[in-house]
Amino acid sequence: MASQVVREWSGIQQFPGATQAKLFELLGKLKQENVESLTILVMGKGGVGKSSTVNSVIGERVVAVSAFQSEASRPVMISRQRAGFTLNIIDTPGLVEGGYVNDRAIDMIKSFLLDKTIDVLLYVDRLDAYRVDNLDRQIIKAITDSFGKAIWKRAAVVLTHAQLSPPDGLSYEEFFSKRSEALLKVVRLGGRIKKQDSVAFSMPVVLVENSGRCNKNESGEKILPNGVSWIPNMVKTIIDVISNGSKGILVDKKLIEGPNPNARHKMWIPVILAFQYFIVKQIRGAIQKDIAREPKAAWELRDMNVSKRKY
Ligand code: GDP
Ligand code: MG
């Protein structure tokens, strides 16, 4: 890895001047904060637009896009360098197969990530989907079980197909907020994130439109129906996530092979039970000794004599 020559991020030049200027400003901000590289992990179901989003951000067609789910079966990392900064984006196969979470895909992603640090997770889904279900929750659970709850502090939800006209007379903002609230709820449930956990609770949701028919503003920048130029906006959100005070997730052997990172404390349960048993035994012994030492009451002695007489 280290010896590999990283290609220049020349795709930036494909963007209109206004987008380039915003991106360079953001890269300058990263340089000021001494951030020399970022590794972004892209995950989600198949066909939601993961690969298209990677291509959009890099500004080149670097990974295959398919309308028919014949996705890449392995994760790939695309690395690009610009002004001393290296961007690594990891595109992954879809996490669902035949209606279930694809454990093989998850294991493959985990081993691919060995010794890498995930700076940001982009959890991708479509804006133009109308429901979330138990499968979504299972996917979130599988990600949480693999990388630990803390991954959600380093995450953003990405909603593709963002150029849409909402149904039922809803405004764009209303539709967006309903859809993102539903997804964030599923992330909180599947990730077992408590309401008090404000960082993960306020996970950002970014909108993306990968289609070539995406609207443009007068400067030629790709914009969303709400007028936002989405590429710089997504990069800005990613930078906000890494600046929120949380740590990146180092995927080491322990994380891959060890117990579920959320269940590590459960290893202490037998020790705690043994300790409790020991304490209870001690207390019980002390009480019995105390009782034996106590002078017997007259009625007790009488009862003892009665029972002696009987037998
Ligand atoms: P992946 O399986 O998650 O990697 O999804 P792909 O990037 O391969 O995209 C699946 C299909 O959706 C392709 O036909 C893409 O052209 C299309 N697609 C992806 N993102 C968008 C988007 O934002 N808008 C529209 N209209 N189509 C998209
Ligand atoms: Mg793909």
Automatic annotation (TrEMBL):
A single cellular component GO annotation: chloroplast outer membrane
GO biological process entries: intracellular protein transport
Family annotation (Pfam families): AIG1
Coiled-coil region(s): none
EC number: 3.6.5.-
Family annotation (PANTHER family): GTPASE, IMAP FAMILY MEMBER-RELATED (PTHR10903), TRANSLOCASE OF CHLOROPLAST 33, CHLOROPLASTIC (PTHR10903:SF149)
Natural source organism: Bienertia sinuspersici
PROSITE patterns associated with the record: G_AIG1
Molecular function in Gene Ontology: GTP binding; hydrolase activity; identical protein binding; metal ion binding; protein-transporting ATPase activity
Assembly mode: Homodimer.
NCBIfam families given in the database record: 3a0901s02IAP34
Family, per entry: Belongs to the TRAFAC class TrmE-Era-EngA-EngB-Septin-like GTPase superfamily. AIG1/Toc34/Toc159-like paraseptin GTPase family. TOC34 subfamily.
Protein purpose: GTPase involved in protein precursor import into chloroplasts. Seems to recognize chloroplast-destined precursor proteins and regulate their presentation to the translocation channel through GTP hydrolysis.
Protein name: Translocase of chloroplast
Keyword rRNA-binding assigned: no
Compartments, record wording: Plastid, Chloroplast outer membrane
